[in-house]
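Bug #2210: token dump truncated for Ubiquitin?
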Amino acid sequence: MTPLEKVEKLCSMGNITFEEAKAALDAANGDLLDAIIYLEKQDKIHAPSSGGYYSSEKAVDAHVVSYQAKDWKKEHHSGDKENPFLSLFKDAWDFFLKLLRKGNENSFEVLKGTEVKGSFPITALVLLMIFAFWVTIPLMVIGLFFGFRYRFVGADIKATTINDAMDSAADAAENLKKSMDK
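Reproduced locally. Full output below:
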């Protein structure tokens, strides 16, 4: 609702001028309900005796008042609150897209010595771990025994904890391999 429509609405609710209505809206920071309360306190708008819908017209029929109240509610409160389920779904979708973007920007690398043998997005690794873990995990373990090392790289990979854990697993596989050769 535009400020002009709010002023006109206030003027129609009581015998007040445009200046008084604008001053009430300014005092209420543009909130129509607060402006109505402000004008009631100044006795420029009278509160209805039934405590219901405000109207400068005298409604004889209760259905007319009920219809006007529903119309006013639709006009003023239709977009105030979003459906909580839709809000939750939107937040989850935004989180999923952010996670997907980060997974595609960062990489999982397979190294043999210092040479990078393969590199692919972390999203691909996650999908492999979810849908083909019975193949992916054994291949990674076998790769450790053949001297491969793994690491995560990218702009969002700041902590080296995961890479240190990957190096210690590779070192453990190397030590196990050496102890079996003896």
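Output looks complete on our side. The beta strands are 107-112, 115-121, 148-153. Marking as cannot-reproduce; reopen if the truncation happens again.
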